[in-house]
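REQUEST
  id: r-88c1
  op: predict_structure
  target: Transport permease protein
  payload:
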Amino acid sequence: MAASASIAVFKAEARLFGREPGNIFWIVVAPTVLLTILGLIPAFREADPARGGLRTIDLYVPVALLMATIMACIQSMPPVLSGYRERGILRRMSTTPVRPAALLAAQMVLHGVAMLGSAVLALTVGRVAFGVALPDQIAGYALTLFLTMLSTLALGAVLAAVARNAKVATAIGSVAFILMMFTAGVWVPVQVMPDLLQRIVEFTPLGAASMALAEASGGGWPSWSHLAVVVLWSAVLAGAAVRWFRWE
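RESPONSE
  id: r-88c1
  status: 200
  body:
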C-alpha cells in the first residue's frame, strides 16, 4: 500500500510540476537561451590561444548545465516544499499511509529529471549550433554532473528546512542564487578568473564542478580533488538537511 501511495504522490506532483511553465522554462530552457545568446556574439566564437584554442562559448556549455541545477534546486524546489509545510500539507500527510518523505523524494526526482533534460538540450544546441565538441570523457562528465545534482538537491533541501514559509525560502534562495551563479561561472567562467579567486571558488561545489566538467570535456578524468569537494559538500548539506528538516 505504501508503494502504491508513493506512486500516486509522484504522479500528482508530476502533474503539478507540469502546470508550472515558469519553472520548466527557467530550469530546462533558460540555460540554453543564455548559451545561444552568448554563442551569437562573434568574439565568443573565436579561438583563444591563451586557453589552448578553446573559445568562450566552449567554456559556457558546462556553465549552462550548472545554471540549470541552480534554477531547479535554489529557485524552484525550496519554495514548493516550504509552501507545503506552511499550508499544513505535510502535517496532514502524516496521518495517511503516505509518508511525507515520499513527497520530498518526488520533488527531488522531478527536479533531477528537469536538470537532465536541460543538460541534453544545452549539449545538443552547443554542438549543433556552435560546433562545441561533446565531452571526450563521457563517464567523468556524467559522474561530475550527477554529483553536482546531488549537492544542489541537498542544498535545496537545506533551504527548504530553514525557511518557515515560501516567502522566506524565496528570499534566502535569492541570496544563494546570486552567490552560486558567480561560483558557477555564469558571469565570468571559473577557468578565466584570476588565480587567487579561482582557487577560492574551487572550494565551492559549483566552482569545483565547473573545473571538473572542463577537465572531462578535454578528455581527462576529472581531478579527484574537484570531485572530492563536490562529494564533501553533498555529504555536509545532506546531513544538515536531515538534521534541520521539519515536516510541520
